Amino acid sequence: MKISYIGSGYVGQVNAVGAAFYGHDVILMDIDAEKVDSINQGIPTIYEEHLDEQMKDIVLNKKKLRATLDLEEAVKSTEISLISVGTPDKGGMIDLSYIQEVAIGIGKALKNKNEYHTVVVKSTVVPGTTLKLVKPLVEEYSGKKAGVDFGIGMNPEFLREGVAWNDSIKPDSIVIGSQDEKTKQTLRAMYSWAPEEKITYVGINAAEAIKYAKNSFLAMKITFANEWANFCEAVGIDAKEVLEAIGADKRISPMFLRNGPGYGGSCFPKDVNAIVHAGQVNHSPFRILEQVVQTNHNQYLKLIDLAEKVVGPIRRKKVGILGLSFKPSTDDTRESPALRIIAFLVSRGCEIKAYCPQGIPMAKKWLESNRITEIQYQSDGKSCVEDVDLVIVPTDWPEFKEIIAQTTVPTFIGHRSLMDPAKYAHVYALGYPKP
Questions:
Q1: Whether residues 194 and 258 fall in one domain
Q2: Which of 179, 262, 263, 265 could form a disulfide with 326 if both were Cys (CB 3.0 to 4.6 A apart)?
Q3: pLDDT in tens, 212-265
């Protein structure tokens, strides 16, 4: 098939390369000339394991993917367009301005296209967006009728940052939302490589809701693990023992059942906020999720509290920060607890040295935009832990284990999943009753 992805952010790039991997001819459209140029050279503008070699092969060797600045060309040259632009958080609610702009642009492009075209929302949007915003705008600006002259559908993404490439080519499930048979069959053809048992067919509104239901449940599960770990630490129990035991129950599973400084990233924070707001405006509040948001917002302070129990008042201390991305194996620092920790420490007059295998560029940009410019960024983890009073490890990159094992001074404060306080005298972890 000939497919276009409108928006070359995280979702657009990974899914476009994945579609091309399975033989489709793909156009990736974006308004950012630097992104377009980079992609056409086979170089992704995000870090995701395996994506760089796959994009290089698909763009330069197989020539199954190219990028463009021209939305009209992308629509006219393909059979199906998937909207994959961002839906950021805006004051605790979803910002649909990019979705609106793209819907208008697609409508204008379809006005002069004679062939049937399928328009699919891939971005995460609150239930009702596709049918109440995207569909009417495309109809208005194209002069055509959905279900007659063009198809309309919703196909949510379920990529996990850090393992997104594998998720794109070997997904656990695929959700196809449609209101007409032709759109349903077009999307099924796009996923012709996937076995039928992997696919769930639903209405468009349900497809939008499924994405939020999954993300909010997982955010709730992380918060559940954090609350139990906090309790275990307070009463003298090793939280890892408790969480591993309940995760062994097949009804619960160990996935997303690890404690830490809170969830972050591009999805969970904004998506939980958005669905909480949707519940409020529809007079059906998500009371559990409201508490999840509040609890997660304060969870990063547990690392600060633990540090002060161990080394005393943290004011004016020299602190090393290992890990800036919100999780390992990604460069994404959006809503990362590490950045909140740094902001807090700077407000207390601390001197900060920071290192992350992939997250420094994005973290530096955010911190400088918030006038936090005094950070000493390091080129490796070893230099980050030298000449400091303590080291906080907000992100459990596996490579940090070696640094912890080889360094006896200073004190390390971090994840129970990464470090074993029972093994090292200089190591303290959330959910472990050592202090």
A1: no
A2: 265
A3: 999 999 999 999 999 999 999 999 999 999 999 999 999 999 999 999 999 999
How far is residue 391 from each of residues 55, 303, 399, 426, measured CA to CA in Å? 37, 11, 15, 10
pLDDT (0 to 100) of residue 352? 97
| 3-state SS class at 133 | helix
Are the C-beta atoms of residues 10 and 47 closer than 8 Å to each other? no
Contacts 24+ apart (CB under 8 A), 410-416: 410/320, 410/385, 411/310, 411/311, 413/303, 413/306, 413/307, 413/310, 414/303, 414/322, 415/258, 415/259, 415/260, 416/229, 416/238, 416/239, 416/240, 416/259
- Which one, of 355, 364, 359, lies nearest residue 392 by Cα? 355
Range of the domain at 363: 215-429
Low-confidence spans in the chain with pLDDT less than 70: 435
Active-site entry in 232, 267, 350, 356: 267
Of the candidates 266, 243, 270, which has an alpha carbon nearest to the alpha carbon of residue 159? 266
189 and 138 belong to one structural domain: yes
How many CA atoms within 13 Å lie on the side-chain side of 352?
A: 28
Predicted model pTM: 0.91
The pLDDT assigned to 408 comes to: 82
267 as an active site residue: the answer is yes
The vertex-71 CA angle with 68 and 212, nearest 5°, equals 100
Q: Which one-letter DSSP state was computed for residue 315?
A: T
Task: Tell me if residue 351 falls in helix, strand or coil.
Answer: strand
Residue that finishes a domain, picked among 154, 180, 202: 202
Contact 363, 356 (CB under 8 A): yes
196, 249: one domain: no
Same domain, 327 and 274: yes
How far apart are alpha carbons 72 and 76 in whole angstroms?
6
Q: How many domains does the chain have?
A: 2
Same domain? For 162 and 13 the reply is yes
Amino acid at 241: E
Q: Is residue 435 part of a domain?
A: no
Q: Which amino acid is at 172?
A: D
d(CA 156, CA 130): 12
Q: Based on the domain organization, do 34 and 177 belong to the same domain?
A: yes
CATH number of the domain to which 284 belongs: 3.40.50.720
Residue with tokens 């959330």: 430
